[in-house]
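Q: What residues go here?
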């Protein structure tokens, strides 16, 4: 390894060191991201520096973006130097490539955060939806049953009552007409 660096100019050595350190940190972050938990701990440690990825809005200067910048900056500089470009041109091209990578990484995390949703059920979205009775529902709100309903893209099991004159048996198809409370639907048989 010593001979490898001995034949290089100072600029080539600098680009190689930046590329190797950036790649090593990137590999650690990548590994922790897929193993889970490690990235959050690292961000908590970096809180004072302001380099956390809290997922709030578009963030440009984050730990992940800086690692992406230095990794691409280093490797682009190595390639530029290997192709005989001058130091100034190598630094310029490497900086532009690093900034482009930072922008792409920022956009990636920004749009990934927009895809996330809480998954909290808004019961009002169930009104007008047809569903199947899972547990029998007593007539005129005499006893509570349950229905299986697809709402907000997922199948849920919710409590239900009816104002119908007759009990509603299991496997009957009903329509949600109103919300009795935050957890109880009012249904009618179809």
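A:
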């Amino acid at each position: 390894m010593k001979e490898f660096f001995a034949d290089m100019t100072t600029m080539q050595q600098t680009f190689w060191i930046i590329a190797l350190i950036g790649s090593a940190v990137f590999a650690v972050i990548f590994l922790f991201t897929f193993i889970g938990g490690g990235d959050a701990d690292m961000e908590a440690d970096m809180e004072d520096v302001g380099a956390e990825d809290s997922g709030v809005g578009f963030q440009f200067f984050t730990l992940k973006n800086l690692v992406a910048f230095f990794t691409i900056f280093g490797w682009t500089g190595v390639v530029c130097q290997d192709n005989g470009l001058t130091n100034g041109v190598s630094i310029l091209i490497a900086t532009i490539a690093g900034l482009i990578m930072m922008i792409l990484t920022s956009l990636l995390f920004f749009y990934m955060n927009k895809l996330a949703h809480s998954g909290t059920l808004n019961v009002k979205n169930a009104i007008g939806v047809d569903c199947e009775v899972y547990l029998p529902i007593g007539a005129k709100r005499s006893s509570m049953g349950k229905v299986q309903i697809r709402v907000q893209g997922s199948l849920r099991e919710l409590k239900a009552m009816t104002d119908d004159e007759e009990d509603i048996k299991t496997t009957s198809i009903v329509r949600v007409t109103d919300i009795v409370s935050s957890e109880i639907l009012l249904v009618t048989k179809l």
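A: Context that may help when evaluating the design: DSSP finds five helices and five strands in the chain. The chain has two domains: 2-115, 123-189.
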